[in-house]
Amino acid sequence: MASRTNQPEQFFPRNTIAEKSRPMPMTNLSNLYASAEQGIKEMTGEARDYLKSEAAELRAACAQASASAGALDPDECKRVMAAANSLREIAGSFGYGLVSEVAGSLYTLVANPLWNERRILAVIDLHADAIEAILRQNLKNDGGEIGSAIVASLRKAVQRFAAGK
Amino acid sequence: MDDTNVYDLSKVKIVVADQSQFVRRLLAAVLTGLRAPHPFSADGSDVALRLVAETAPDLIMIDWDLQPMSGADVVRALRDEKTSPNPTIPIIMISGHCALDRVTQARDIGANEFIAKPFTVDAIYKRLVALIERPRPFIRLDSYFGPCRRRKIEEFADDERRRVNPNPIMSTDDAA
Q1: B144 → chain A, closest CA residue
Q2: By CA distance, what is B24's nearest residue in A?
């Protein structure tokens, strides 16, 4: 009969979070969330400035890449991706879900080394245009009809690019 | 109706590690709104590891894209029983990338929970409650030390998976 070897040791470590946390049955979850949401709301003005500055950085990164010859070099890629990632990570927490989506699309595009060719700059510019438009028009969440039109236009541009056109 | 329990977190010590000052401040605003104390703040991997050693926190929330060591490498360092000041410390990995492979990797290197950016108050709070109410046992193998990895990916990423846009501009097909 085979012996049972290599069985993982399993244990529960001390849970200091549970030890230090006290249930509060009389407190309403909605009120708790409202308090945390208020903290986010108080940063809204600062967030808009932050997003605009990151959008400006994205535009500057695009301009730098456009000024040089050939495809994006690694540093140019990193700069674009850093700005896109920053926008993606923050925008949605302040209601700019569409900015997060467009920035995420841009990040994926630039991160793909197979697609690093000169043509990509036009598509990057379109993404930067879209982000600036969304922030300028203060389009929240999915941006409604305008947001749908922006997404549709970007999707076509990406598909054309992917198809080599 | 959400029946998540409410907890007083005022004595829970938390370290937040992210390169972006804005993100650290945002997380601090959410955590203090949830009645946790103001977290200790780390802008890089070195500071994060130092804070864990010096402040003995109950939890660390760490971004994947840290420098000079990545968040993933910090998690590995924290789970090293020989050198870590607290190899069983609860770790919530945070990332702007929530593709399946990233979530899987976070789980497999020893993170307890995963939160995608942009994050929501609900996602953060539910992860905290999961650490309180449903802690996972730790496993010690030759090749791994950390929380049991048997939890399904869907449970690990929970809200993040549901929030992913099913019709993104750039699909993985496009990116292939």
Answers
A1: A8
A2: A90
CA distance B152 to chain A (A): 18
**Residue B90 near chain A (CB below 8 Å):** yes
Determine, for residues B137 and A12 on separate chains, whether the beta-carbon distance falls below 8 Å. Answer: yes
Residue-wise pLDDT for B101-141, tens only, equals 888 899 999 999 999 988 899 999 999 999 999 999 999 99
Q: What's the helix, strand, coil split of chain B in %, to 5?
A: 40, 15, 45
What gap in Å lies between CA B176 and CA B174, rounded to an integer? 6
Prediction pTM value? 0.86
Which residues lie closer than 8 Å to A51 by C-beta, 6 or more apart? A87, A90, A91, A94, A96, A99, A135
Return the SS3 of A30.
helix
For chain B, helix (H) and strand (E) counts, in that order, are 8, 8
Across the interface, whether the CB atoms of B120 and A100 are under 8 A apart is answered no
Question: In chain B, which residues have their Cβ closer than 8 Å to the Cβ of A88?
Answer: 96, 117-118
Largest Cα span, chain A: 73
Query: What is the Cα–Cα distance from A49 to A135, expressed in whole angstroms?
Result: 10
Reported ipTM? 0.86
